């Protein structure tokens, strides 16, 4: 109701303005999710995240490049996600929603909707930074160190979402970062001192990139949760439309020459379609993760799916099962227990001061 | 007093027997140690444990063997430790101890003293198992997996000393084991699946060896702490005399032929003396660790000194500083915080339920 008042006019009585602030802070909190829904969303995120790298790997050429342009892939993903959301939104609007509640499910002012552009811009910026970073540090090490996004997620969550964490949860995020780094197949190959001259600059770029790309996810979470009553499909519609706008602009700016010469779909084949489907589905599932769970759950799911992918690689592609990998899996498991320890103890009504065995 | 009564005769009134049990359970608890003494003992253990591998490495031949026999080294260490303890005990007996307290400082019945043979026998047994283990698994992997002694120390502490630990302390021991494994220079070289046929048997031998050698340390701790009022120098005298007895017997049994042929000190040089001094000093310091701190503190010190040795090797011997090693150091640090967390929070009077930032 407060949001309705807001975009009718600027001059509002103080009384109502206060109500609006309250209203937002209330709707900001996610509605309590059942354990089942929680696990279903997290499992879907883990599943799709385990599938995605396999799709990307199968599209990769031997020299590590792709036949298709990355810019057109990003734009096509935004378009596909929009095409997925439109029918679902329309169906829920006309069929499953009571007419009296239809207004609430798309109650987003134009000014508020403009904020949805922030994640798209940040996402583009972090993609650009990758190119700078890769000129200072080798791709394997770059990929491995990208896992510091786990700890930056915690830091930015504290800054943007103002959510404090216990000492054990911070420790858990540190352990999770380490576990993810150790589980990366390239971790043991990288000698840090070997390229110390450039490593610091590379590390700076990676950290900046992680900060920017994580900000993008956390702002998505913030805006999606702020409009808790708005339909997630409507929020996605708006997000993807801005995404198409920003990425289309970015593509024209960076690749207009090759697009003119080769056409939009140059280099696309079935493996590209495979990537498109995996990325688009992931985008839609991520919107659920951000609206109903959050970015910390997201980085935890990310790590779990990385471990699952590695286990699959060991079983089906005969990768080596090293001692380091086994240690990494145990560190990740321990970190997840540490992060959810308070919830687990509360759930089983265990007094932590006497929890010894 | 109870112990005095005990070796006077078998038939004791029930009243006194009860008193004795109480007495033992009271003296079992170590007298509260100041933080300074705690840190001094732990630091000395860390220092000597960081020195020891360097001494051993300098005595090692290129093919990994030693010029001297291991059996004579073990026996000579026991003799050297005894020679260190005798003058110190005599000095403290005649000079620094009040005559009325002299009886208490060596109040150990012959029957009780016999128990001191248990650690020596277990120690010999675990040394023998090493040879079996090494025929199933390569020395590098054997050395790396030897770190599971950290977690077996926790398990045996629970069984022998009946000391419970919190979930976080168990988790800390798991993380510490992993950190120690990852910090071992040979960890990344070992491919587990590569020798899976023999690996399970090797793992079985390593686990058994760790269980036996850790039992040896924990029994030492148990007996030393039970006689809390007895002088540690007297306890050491007894322990080392039994050690000389058991190891001398063991040496005659296993190496009498080569001893007859080559003589006792065959292959001894200055590097052997170096090892002898390091090992003997370590033995004496360990007795303080066991009597006043305990086996968990010991395995933690062990891991810290391993990290210190590795850092020295990186600085002075130009070892590679790998990403895995940096991760290992962070895991070890996090594990130590986790293990002492409750003590730290209590010390700073922090309420753990509200400890978020």
From TrEMBL, chains A, B:
Protein localization: Membrane
GO MF annotations in UniProt: pyrimidine nucleotide-sugar transmembrane transporter activity
UniProt keyword list: Membrane, Transmembrane, Transmembrane helix
Pfam family, one: Nuc_sug_transp
InterPro entries named among the record's database cross-references: EmrE-like, Nuc_sug_transpt
Chief location of this protein within or outside the cell: membrane
TM annotation in the entry: 35-52, 72-94, 114-134, 140-161, 168-187, 199-220, 232-252, 272-290, 297-317, 323-340
Topology in membrane: Multi-pass membrane protein
GO cellular component, one term: Golgi membrane
Keyword Membrane appears in the UniProt entry: yes
UniProt keyword Phosphoprotein present: no
Matches recorded under NCBIfam families: nst (TIGR00803)
Name by which UniProt lists this protein: Uncharacterized protein
Species of the source: Blepharisma stoltei
Higher taxonomy: Eukaryota, Sar, Alveolata, Ciliophora, Postciliodesmatophora
